[in-house]
Amino acid sequence: MLKVKTPTTGRARRELEKRAPKLVEGEKKTLILHSTKTSNVLNTVLTEIYHLKKGNCIKYSRKNENIRPFEAGGETSLEFFSQKTDCNLFVFGSHSKKRPDNLVLGRFYDHHIYDLLEVGVENFKSLQSFSYDKKIAPKMGSKPLIAFVGEGFESVEELKHLKEVLLDLLRGEVVENLNLVGIDHVYVCTVVSQNRVFLSHCALRLKKSGTVVPKMELVEVGPSMDLVVRRHRLPNEGLRKEAMKTVPQKTKKVKNVKGDPILGKTGKIYIPDQKLGDMALPNKAKGVKRERREAKMNKDADGQVLKKQKGEDSK
């Protein structure tokens, strides 16, 4: 394993922060590895996966005899390579009489194995076996579309797991906005049976449709293959909860506002004391001022009389 050292410089600390687990993940890197024995078909599959993900993929050509993903102790080398290369996904190829043309797909969390999925490759067709106009060939680094056809991706546990892994493997960089002209290829995954999926890679050809949205035509450019699900291992519940943490949404609290399931959004309104005596009355009558003046005069006269009576009584 790699020797853990405490960073002493700011640059080293920043590098470690980049490799630390994040609540919002960026683009995922893929690690491609070989076993001690592989077939010609499997070597071609791994090479073409590398070309499809070129620029965001690392491929090791040496044979690795210590990697046995589904066996105890056989995952140490994988975790070492993940920590060394800072990869989030891996594709491991092996070939044996019991499991010919075998691919193991998996994901890492914090440089530890998160989940594993083993598939067999059948009916493989390479890029060179397809003939098409090279002008519509997909460009490297472009954002692909991914289509999943079939109810098995929602009902069968193995196929649901395969869908999640293929999405992480093929989706590329996560973006919010897309230019329609920049979409030039699509991956089509079709359910054939309960454990078999047909994967094909097609280019998009834009044609005139008479409207603003052009008509899209699919042209198969390869590779294509059948993926037969053999074994799979889901993450344990504790690791899943830790990996699925999301950023808490902080909402600004509004004073005197509450949410009610029946009434909806309710609030309190505070009104100051109203001084009705000082309010100006609209449409005042003509005699209002005279009546007020007479009332005031009568009040003053009564006050003077009361004062004289008090003065006389004191004498």
Automatic annotation (TrEMBL):
Region (Disordered): 281-315
Single Gene Ontology MF annotation: rRNA binding
Signal sequence interval, chain numbering: none
Localization per record: Nucleus, Nucleolus
A GO term from the CC aspect: nucleolus
UniProt entry tagged with the keyword RNA-binding: no
Recorded superkingdom: Eukaryota
Domain (Brix): residue spans on this chain: 28-238
Alphabetically ordered keywords of this record: Nucleus
Pfam families cross-referenced by the UniProt entry: Brix
GO biological process, one term: ribosomal large subunit assembly
Residue stretches spanning the membrane: none
Compositional bias segments (type: Basic and acidic residues): 291-302
PANTHER family per UniProt: BRIX DOMAIN CONTAINING PROTEIN, RIBOSOME PRODUCTION FACTOR 2 HOMOLOG
Protein family per UniProt: Belongs to the RPF2 family.
Full protein name: Ribosome production factor 2 homolog
Source species of the chain: Carnegiea gigantea
